[in-house]
Structures are given as structure tokens and as C-alpha cells.
## 1
Amino acid sequence: MKVTVAGAGFVGLVASACLAELGHQVTCIDIQKEKINMLQCGRSPIYEPGLEELLEKNLCNKQLHFTTSPHQAYSGADIIFIAVGTPENHDGSADLKYIHVVSHTIAHYIEQDVIVCTKSTVPVGTNELIQQIIESRKPPNLQVEVVANPEFLRKGSAIHDFFHGDRIVIGTNHSEAAAFMEQFYLPLKIPIMKTDIRSAEMIKYAANAFLATKISFINEMANICKNVGACIEEVAYGIGQDKRIVHHFLKAGIGYGGSCFPKDTKALIQLSGDFKQRYELLEAVINVNNRQQSLPVLKAKEIIGSLQGKKIALLGLAFKADTDDIRESAAITIIKELLEAGAVVTAYDPIAIPNARRIIGNAIEYTEEIRQALLNADLALIATDWDQIKHLPLEVYLTHMKEPIVIDGRNCYPLQEIRQYPIIYRSIGRPDLPNTNDTFE
Ligand code: UGA
């Protein structure tokens, strides 16, 4: 089938590469010429494990093409996926300018009947708007059906998620379009849910709001655990055995970040407000998350007092491991707070440094060597659970730092391991170490 994907961002590129891998003839279009030039040479503009290999392979076997030409992209397409960005407006609502532009362009360039499938996260009612825009501008003899098809890909495991997702949601009020999409996705052998267009749009926001709520719930619980001397990991495991709760997404830490949860929770509050309804639970979820991101610096001040002139090693810049995305990363909040407090920061990250530098500039030092960041540091602060950090031999904190003080915002190390070293260790929702009973040789 001839498939066109509009937008060469994270969602568009993963969809393009994976649909080509499934055997479709895929054309991915973007308005950014530099990005398309790079992709035509098989280089991915974003870091996503396995993506570049899949792009290269399908470019070589000519299943995949990149273009900036709308005629080339849309004229012969059987199905068009919209995967353009929906950034945040000042008031938290979703900015639909790219959706408008792409809808107009599709209407102008299509030359045959086509299904238009929206993968971008869009507020309820947007797919009907896309249908109206295309309907009013397309050649009158052509039939176009717009289908809401939200994606549930996670950064860092998107290729796996595409082929092994929990469900595919197809939202349309048109039975033939629903049947077409069902056939299209059949080879993936993923359970397919067909629903109306507005429910499909809502499923995406509801899923992200629920997952964000789970994280703020467990973080709130972690803070109580710490106060009463319980361990959040035991508690999360214990409640997760209940099938109504499940253990996934109950990892306490310094809060969620990224381009999705922060944006989508705010957009849902805004959407709710449009109907004069306050979404109080979600407001609390966001407040808890903001507070959680500020915990590490508070803990640092508790241990060493003033941070003025202190050398801090910040381990991890990405909002989570296996991505170079630093949008809404807890690390960025932490850096701002550390700089305000007069600290001297050296940040370690294996791949997110170029993106962080664009936001933070030269106000801090950067290194791709953990040991370099830790050298002579007064305190280390872990913001991302990179494997490189999790597998660092704990002796390194003793041999490299001025004082072995570690604030672990991602609970990277088992307490029984830390206990074997004279490291002053604070984590999230777990007892402080060393405690009064610990002695070291
Ligand atoms: C999230 C959803 O998980 C995807 O299903 C969805 O498709 C995507 O948003 C989107 O809307 O496009 P993503 O933002 O890539 O995916 O990353 P997650 O793995 O969900 O992690 C989000 C944040 O929550 C990270 O900062 C992570 O460190 C944090 N987190 C996650 C926790 O603090 N605890 C957990 O138990 C899980």
C-alpha cells in the first residue's frame, strides 16, 4: 500500500520506519529541508534505539522515501498519517497550527480517494475539524475519511512498542474506514479497538493523565514512606500484586518529564476548563510533580547547607534513560535551582548534552564521562536512570569525590549495596544511609 506520513518528528519517523518494515511503500514528508536531507542520507535527527538501523535498511531497499514535495507525498497516497507536532500554547492548550497547515495541504494535493489517519495528540473535536478543512477544499469527486488513531509509543522503546503495543485505537464514525484500518493493522496482531472519533481522541489524553497520576501517587506515597521508615519499593511491589493496580509505572523518583505527560495533563485541564469544570485531581498531580522535581536541591541543602561555590556533579540530563530528549526534564529544573543557589555544576549525560546546551548554554560544564563529573565534587545528584549510572562501581564515589555524598533521584542502587560503602546516600521514599547502626571499617 502507498503510505504517506506527514511530519518527520519522533512519531512520524517511528511510524515511517516501522510501516516500511511491514512492507508498505512509505513516503515521509516534512517542511524542514535540512531534516529531510539528513534523513535521505540515512541519518536520524533524533536518538531512538533501533530507529537509524531501520531507516537505513528501508531506504536501501527503497521501501522508504523522504521528501519536502507535497505533490510527491500526497498525490498517489492510499493512506496518509498526520504526525505533526501539537506544541503547548501559553495557556496550556494544544497549538493546532501545524494541523491546520497540513490539512490544507492534503486537501490541495490529493488526487485519489484517501484515508487520513491522525496520530498527533489532538484535543477532542480536532479530527472533525480536519475532516471539515479537507472536505471544504478537496476536489469534489474525491472521498476522504479522517480517522483518529492515537499512538502510545514511549521514547526509548518506540520500535518495540510499535510492533508489540497493548492495543491499537481506531476512532471513526465511518464503518468502511474502520474496516480499512482494521485490515491495515491486522499483520501486527495487536488487539484493535474500534470506537467513535471523539472517544479515540479522549483515550490518548486519559491514558497519559492516568499514567501521570500513577507516578504522582507513588511519589506522594514515597514521601510518607520516608517519614514513617517504610520503603517505597516494597510498598509499590506489594500493591502492584493486586491485578486492579499492577506494578508497572509505580517507580518513585523526582517526577515525570518529557514532551507528553507535562503537555497533555495541562491540555486536559484546559479542555476541562473550556466546559467550566475544574480537573482538581490532575491539578494536584502536576503540583506533586513540580514539588518532586525540587526535592533533590532541598535534600542537598539539608546535608551540606549553603551550596554557594560547591561543586555539584549532576548525573543525567535526559528526562529518562535511552533518549536525548530533555524537554521538561527534572534535570533542567535542578540545574536552574542549583545555579540560583550559587553552585558550580558539571553535568554528565551520554547523549543529551547537545540538546541541554541549547537550553542551558555555558552556565554549567558538560561531560560524557561520569568520572570526570564526579572528580572533586562536593555532592552528586542523580537525575536520570541511565544504565551507565546504575552500573557505575560504587567505589568511584569514594575515589573521585571530595565527599561521597549522593542524592539519588531515581533510586538507582539497591540499599544493601550502598550499605557496604561509607557513602552518605539519600534516595526517594527509602531510608537515609548510613543509619545509626551502620559501621564501616
Ligand atoms: C509517554 C507514554 O508512556 C506513552 O504511552 C505515550 O505514547 C507518550 O507518553 C506520548 O504521549 O507520546 P514517554 O513520555 O516517552 O511516553 O515516557 P514514559 O516512559 O511514559 O516516562 C515519562 C516520565 O515518567 C519519565 O520522566 C519517567 O522517568 C517517568 N516515570 C515513568 C516515573 O517517574 N516512574 C515510572 O514508574 C514511570
Note: The radius of gyration is 24 Å.
## 2
Amino acid sequence: MKLKDPGLLREAAFVAGAWRPVRNDGATVSNPANGERVGEQPMLALAEVEQAIESAHAAFGAWREHTGKERAAVLRRWADLVMANADDLAWIMTAEQGKPLAEARGEIAYAASFLEWFGEEAKRGYGHTIPEPRRGQRIKVIKEPLGVCAAITPWNFPSAMVTRKVAPAIAAGCTVLLKPAPQTPFSALALCVLAERAGLPQGVLSVLTGEARMIGEAFCESHLIRKISFTGSTAVGKSLMANAAGTLKKLSLELGGNAPFIVFDDADVEAAVAGAKASKFRNAGQTCVCVNRFFVQRGIHDAFVARLKAAVADLRVGDGYAEGTTIGPLVNHAAVEKVERLVMQAIDAGATADLVVRAPAGGSFYAPTVLTGVQPSMQISREEIFGPVAAITRFDTEDEVIRLANATRYGLAAYVYTQNMRRGHRIERELEYGIIGVNEGLISTEVAPFGGVKESGFGKEGSFYGLDEYLDSKYICHGGVA
Ligand code: ADP
């Protein structure tokens, strides 16, 4: 590992303010580009998870008493440390996740932006005063931190998904138990090293590695934990919701998507192709807001497909550390097999595949593919692809495409390309999605609320809405005020 600061790669969990190294319980993390060992993470025992929960509970009393300004100062220092160590953090991310180094650097800046933004918001947990209905009363509503919160994060954005949850919780005055994805624990642990250096008090953050189901159940069953924020598959989100019912926890669930990308005849085709490329192929197609279904109107279909193929031909698949790589490996071989299955099923059902780029042998690579003649009934239109495959369906009318776009149980992101703004305004209301890009393919930012509807989950991340997810309002009524 070429790290300037080797101390950032910690083969240890962070439990109750102390580093807990691997003993004889290490689980290996490997690089998806070549299978090489990155390091080992401890598989914590239930008793250690419970100890972390208790320490988060014990730390809450003092952390909530810090002023917003004091919490902001810690988050600011943390953000600065993340940026100062961006090269090392990106290197660790590429090793365990596979994404190209330039993309990993971009994610580190995005991760730091949540620390900065929510640090600033820490000072603004405003409440209300309400005019009293009876004489002699005074009514106020204050915002208070929820208490101990748990965060469960996925492997596709190993750093940004961590700070998107942990920063608002800490800014609000909550304490946090983080369970990172088993494929990418070292990015989360490196962030934790920097949190400690930034002066985050003991017990405010624990990072727990180990068996997902056991840790998830411990979170759900604990009476001390008030909220779980989860990003991952819809199936796991549903099981967490069922298990959290026993203690009536608050939940934020950011689950799967099936994003439509609609291109009307009147679209600016170059802008549509640029947006399509950015949204579809970022992170090798492994984001929950990646386009899953392209709907292209008949009149522009062939021009759009030709230009998209030309744009895809510029992509370079390979090791994330290699100069010029724009598409890294998929997270593992099972992911490759899943994408292969969806593409083969589509071809069997009549779709046409164009492979315009080669993928190297070995590693879990998948060659970017443009698939035309895709029908809404095909499995590839119904399931999240999570790979670099553009599945394109032709349509004729606006009504038809709205119906097709909404014909899914998911509702996270949707994209529309049209130069007719009346149509743009009309369709943004019709689409049953939590995030809409109109003539825009990159919609993620710390300043706006990210979150879905339907089976894509609920709860918002980022922006002032994101802070509110970690605050409760308390109504106080004073009587007998002369
Ligand atoms: P993906 O298919 O993208 O890996 P998962 O939903 O399986 O999505 O994983 C997202 C996160 O949820 C990871 O941190 C994973 O370890 C965790 N996870 C998986 N199964 C469970 C479970 N039963 N309870 C709690 N967390 C889980």
C-alpha cells in the first residue's frame, strides 16, 4: 500500500472509544480488480456490540450538552482532515471497492462536504414559538437530538454514505454506531481515525465490523437505540423495519431504485448523452440513482443510441489505479454473474447487445454494454442492474412514457430530457420519484434532500431536511405566566 500515513489503514474495529484489533477472528477484504488481500477486519462478538451501544448511550448525555458551535468545530476539523488526507483515503477506497482513483478522490471530497455542511447546520436546530390559545400561557417547540442512532452503510460509496449519515447525527447531538459494509470497512475505519484526531469525544462514534445479521438484530432489539438509518437493498430494509417494530424505532431507509431516463424528441441530444453517460456509468453503474431504464422517443431514438455508443466507446475498463481507467471492476463475481444473467435473458427475449468496449480478463470486470430493443416486461427493466449496461426502450407518447416510468415498485431518482419547459414542468409532477433531474444527470449534492418514495424507502439525507431526521420536537407549555 502506498500510503503517506499508514496509520489510516486500521485492521481494527472502534468499540466504545478504543481500537479493537483483529484477534483470531479476522475476515479478509480483497481488491475486486485482482483478488489481492487488502487487510482483515475483526468479526466482533455480540457482547462487544452491546458494549458499544452502552458507551454510545453513556456518551450521549455529555455530547448533547455541547453547543452547536462546539459540535460544528469538531466536524469542521474532521472535514479538513479528510481533505488533507484525501489521497490516502482515495487509495484505500480504490483498493477495497475498485472504483477509479479519480472517482475515489471525488467521493472523498463529497464525503467531506457532508461533514462541512452539517457542521454548519449544527448551529441551526431552530424551534418555534406558537401564539398561546389561552391567556397566561407560553408555548414553545424546541428541537432535541434523538439519542443513540445506528447507521448501516453499503459498499458502493464507502465514505460518502458514512458521512451522509454520521455527520447529521453528530451535528444534531446524537451519538452513533456505524456498521460499514463488509466489502469496504477500511474506508469507514480511516474516517474514524480522523474523527478521533479531530477531537470527537469517546463513545460518540463506534465503528463495528462483523456479522451483518447479528449486528443488525442487536441494533433492532436495543432499547437504547432510537433510530436506524440504512442504505442498501430493499429486502434487508424491509427486514430491518420488521425487526425494529419491536422497539418502535425511527427509521430512514434508502433502498433500491429503478431509475427511468426519458429522452423526448425535442431534447438536446448531446446534453442527454452527457447526462446518460454520467448517470449510467458512474461507479461502473453501481449507484442507486444510476439509470436503469432508458426510454427514448421514436424520432430521436437512433441518433441518441448512435451518440451514446460513441460516448461509451471512450470508456476504459480496468484496474482503478491504472492511469486512464474510467470503469473499475464490479464489487465481486456474483455481481458480474447477475448482470450477465439479466443481459442474456434480455437477448433471449429479443434485445440486441452492442459491446463497444472490452473488459480485461480476471477480476470482476464487466464490459460496458448498450442494449436496444428492450421491453418493459423483460427482467432487466424490472430489476436493479447495478452494472454498466444501458437498457434502451423506444416509446411514442408522453402519456405512455409516464405510465411506463411509474410502473415499478421503486421511486428513487428519475431523469427527463426535453427542451420544452412546459413539458418539463408537467412531467416532474407526474413522476412518482423522490429525486428528479430535468436536463441534469448528476443530482447528488450535500445541499439537497436525497431520498425515495414507494419501495425505495423514506427519510431524507443531505440538506436541512437531513438534519431534521436526527431531531425530535418537544412542545413545552408554560401556564400561569402573568
Ligand atoms: P448490497 O446488496 O448492496 O450489498 P445489502 O442490503 O446486502 O446490500 O447491504 C447493505 C448493508 O446492509 C451492508 O452494510 C450489509 O452488511 C448490511 N446488511 C446485510 N444484511 C443485513 C441484515 N440482515 N441486517 C443488518 N444489516 C445487514
Note: The first strand starts at residue 12 and ends at 15.
